[in-house]
Specification:
Helix content: 25-40%
CATH architecture of the largest domain: Alpha-Beta Complex
CATH topology of the largest domain: Quinone Oxidoreductase, Chain A, domain 1
Number of domains: 2
Shape: globular
CATH superfamily of the largest domain: Medium-chain alcohol dehydrogenases, catalytic domain
Structural class: alpha/beta
C-alpha cells in the first residue's frame, strides 16, 4: 500500500510503498477514506512526542471502510463505514468499565504508538470496543475531523467543563480545536469570545458565529475578555498547549470559572509557570482533557444529524497524501483558517 512515512524529524515524509497491515484478531483493517492533518501530528513530526519511534506512519484522525475482520470481532463486517477515536481503549479494565476509556492504561494510539492513517489502509485493534458506524450521509472528510479535534472539544465542553447555555466561553487559539469549540458551544447556546493573533483567523471565527474576537497581539486578552463578558468568562479553553495562552486563559475567567487544557503541552511547554494566585483567589477549576470515550459518540452524532450544528466550516483544504509534509510544516507558523484533510491517497 502507499503511505507517507516519517523517517526523520522535521523532514519531508517519505512517500513509499509498504506492506499491507495484518488484521488483528480483535480488530479490522480499514481502507482509509479520509485523514485529518492535526497539530498533534506536527508534534510527532517535530520530534516532541516521546511515544513516536522512527520509521513511523503518522495520522490519527481517520474514518474508513472495513476490508478485513478479525476472528474475535462480532460487531463489524466487510463494507461497513466506521469512525475511530484516536485513543483505542481495551474495554475491560477498571477505567474502561467506569466509562473513562481515555485513561485506559493499555491504550493504543494510531499515529503515535501504532502505525497511523497517512496511508491507504490501517489496522485498527479493539474494534468492538471503539469503532462507531459512520452515518450514511456524512462526508468522510468531516467524519475524519471528528476523530480528534471535534470529539476532544465536545468532551471538554460537555463533560469536563459542563458548559451551560448563556455562559461565556473564551477560546484561546482558533485552529481546528478552537473552531470546533466555537461551533459546538454555539450549538449548546453559549456565547463565545475567540482569541488569536491572526486577524484572518479571527475574521473566519466571527463569520461562523463568534460573539466577539480578541487579537492578543494587539491588546491584553484577559482584560479585554473581562470587559466583553462583564467580569470574565465562565469557561476558558486553551487550544494551543503553550505557556502564554494557558496563563492568559486562567486570567480571563470570572470567579468560580472553569478552564480546560486541550492543547498538548510539548517541548519547552511541558512545564509551565502558571498564575496560581488567580486560581487561588478566583477559586478556579483547572481540567485536563484528552480525546473522548467512544461511548459518547452518539450524543455528538445526534447533534450533527439533527442539524443543530454545521461543522463543514472546519474543512478548509482537501489535499493529497503528497501534500501532508507541507501541511505539517505549516504548523511552524500561524496556519491559515480551517483544517486540511487528506482525501486522495493516490497522489
Amino acid at each position: 500500500m502507499r503511505a507517507a512515512v516519517l523517517t526523520g524529524y522535521r523532514a519531508p515524509l517519505d512517500l513509499t510503498t509498504v506492506p499491507d497491515p495484518d488484521c488483528p484478531a480483535d480488530g479490522v483493517v480499514l481502507k482509509v477514506l479520509a485523514c485529518g492533518v492535526c497539530r498533534s501530528d506536527w508534534h510527532a513530526w517535530s520530534g516532541a512526542d516521546p511515544d513516536v519511534a522512527l520509521p513511523h506512519i503518522p495520522g490519527h484522525e481517520f474514518c474508513g471502510e472495513v476490508l478485513a475482520v478479525g476472528a474475535r470481532v462480532t460487531r463489524w463486517t466487510a463494507g461497513d463505514r466506521v469512525i475511530a477515536p484516536f485513543i483505542l481503549a481495551c474495554g475491560q479494565c477498571p477505567a474502561c468499565a467506569a466509562g473513562h476509556q481515555t485513561t485506559c492504561p493499555t491504550q493504543v494510539i494510531p499515529g503515535f504508538t501504532h502505525p497511523g492513517a497517512f496511508a491507504e489502509r490501517i489496522a485498527v485493534p479493539r474494534a468492538d470496543h471503539n469503532l462507531t458506524a459512520l452515518p450514511a450521509t456524512m462526508d468522510p472528510a468531516l467524519a475524519a475531523a471528528l476523530g480528534c479535534r471535534v470529539t476532544t472539544a465536545w468532551h471538554a465542553l460537555t463533560d469536563r467543563a459542563a458548559l451551560k447555555p448563556g455562559e461565556w466561553l473564551a477560546v484561546f487559539g482558533s485552529g481546528g480545536i478552537g473552531l470546533s469549540a466555537l461551533l459546538l458551544a454555539k450549538a449548546i447556546g453559549a456565547r463565545v469570545v475567540m482569541v488569536d493573533v491572526v486577524d484572518e483567523k479571527l475574521a473566519h471565527a466571527k463569520a461562523h458565529g463568534a460573539d466577539a474576537t480578541v487579537n492578543a497581539a494587539k491588546t491584553d486578552a484577559p482584560e479585554a475578555i473581562r470587559d466583553l463578558t462583564g467580569g470574565g468568562a465562565h469557561v476558558a479553553v486553551e487550544a494551543l498547549g503553550i505557556a502564554e495562552t494557558t496563563a492568559a486563559a486562567l486570567k480571563s475567567l470570572r470567579k468560580l470559572g472553569r478552564m480546560v487544557q486541550i492543547g498538548m503541552p510539548a517541548g519547552p511547554h511541558v512545564t509551565m509557570p502558571l498564575p496560581m494566585d488567580a486560581v487561588y483567589s478566583g477559586q478556579l477549576a483547572l481540567f485536563g482533557t484528552r480525546g473522548m470515550p467512544a461511548w459518547r459518540y452518539p450524543s455528538l452524532l445526534n447533534l450533527i444529524e439533527g442539524g443543530r450544528v454545521d461543522l463543514t466550516p472546519l474543512i478548509a483544504r482537501r489535499v493529497a497524501l503528497s501534500d501532508a509534509s507541507a501541511e505539517l510544516a505549516a504548523f511552524d507558523r500561524p496556519a491559515p483558517p480551517g483544517i486540511a484533510v487528506i482525501t486522495d491517497f493516490t497522489a
